[in-house]
Amino acid sequence: MLSKKTKYGLKALTFIVNSAGDNPVQVSAIAKNEQIPQKFLESILLTLRKAGVLGSKKGKHGGYYLRQDPADILMTEVMRVLEGPIAMVPCVSLNYYEKCDDCVDEDTCSVHKLMIQVRDSALNVFRNTTLADLAVKKTENIVK
Amino acid sequence: MLSKKTKYGLKALTFIVNSAGDNPVQVSAIAKNEQIPQKFLESILLTLRKAGVLGSKKGKHGGYYLRQDPADILMTEVMRVLEGPIAMVPCVSLNYYEKCDDCVDEDTCSVHKLMIQVRDSALNVFRNTTLADLAVKKTENIVK
DNA sequence: TATTAATCCTATCAATTTAATAGGAATTAC
DNA sequence: GTAATTCCTATTAAATTGATAGGATTAATA
């Protein structure tokens, strides 16, 4: 299952893209519009900022903003920050590899083989989707 | 993350395929060879039996066996039984659809769009992989 | 410079899920 | 009838998730 953290995070990022002014977007505005508990959202945006996806400005008229063009922000990065490894098992993770304690031989493990395929198919989606793609509205989508 | 339940279940099914005799395979044998807690494994195999993937024979010389040719058992079925819905969010699930309470319009939801792609890519793997594929050993794999 | 509005930080909590264990009932082979 | 096996229900410990609480810090501006 996708965690609420990730779901909220993706919605928040999309909202920021679509609030396209030069001013930072406030947590309260996002929370209200996307129906997200504000305090929870605060912690999520903080995570995204620490990961370098978002920048922030403190104090009055502060808020969050993107640090790159949305077309340059890949879902691989966003998903890893919010949801953790893309692989479903550590033994097929590119960025967080760990050997299974129970598995004698990775090369003959049936789970390993299957999970590599699942990982690659997910990677294929995330590598080819940017935040800009997510933020495209439906009408724009149709026009394309 | 893949649950241990699913991991153990996949390993157990593979083990049964590779124990290819006509006799049912005992839980104790699987548990021992695959390093799975026996009581936990019992409950997993019971689930697979109730779902129709495995058959069982009680009493002395009893055990579990496949009800179909491994080449006819798709990962879509196995994964749904063990891990639950393939979709990461209920609102894109083919078999367990549920509307999000927070989401106003599915058609414009950025999460929805992305998760449909992820679901389809996973389905593509699971629909094209059978238990027989999982159970192929490495050497056989190379020979192909 | 005082006030207000925002992010930042740490801690805590309740609910849920997961992984595992326990104990025995039912069934079957021999 | 005994031994070996699956079947069933209940319980539990640990981990994770989702959310809340309270205040510290920072910056704009009146």
Automatic annotation (TrEMBL), chains A, B:
<dbReference type="GO" id="GO:0005829">
    <property type="term" value="C:cytosol"/>
</dbReference>
<dbReference type="GO" id="GO:0003677">
    <property type="term" value="F:DNA binding"/>
</dbReference>
<keyword id="KW-0238">DNA-binding</keyword>
<protein>
    <submittedName>
        <fullName>Rrf2 family transcriptional regulator</fullName>
    </submittedName>
</protein>
<dbReference type="InterPro" id="IPR030489">
    <property type="entry name" value="TR_Rrf2-type_CS"/>
</dbReference>
<dbReference type="InterPro" id="IPR036388">
    <property type="entry name" value="WH-like_DNA-bd_sf"/>
</dbReference>
<dbReference type="Pfam" id="PF02082">
    <property type="entry name" value="Rrf2"/>
</dbReference>
<dbReference type="InterPro" id="IPR000944">
    <property type="entry name" value="Tscrpt_reg_Rrf2"/>
</dbReference>
<dbReference type="InterPro" id="IPR036390">
    <property type="entry name" value="WH_DNA-bd_sf"/>
</dbReference>
<dbReference type="GO" id="GO:0003700">
    <property type="term" value="F:DNA-binding transcription factor activity"/>
</dbReference>
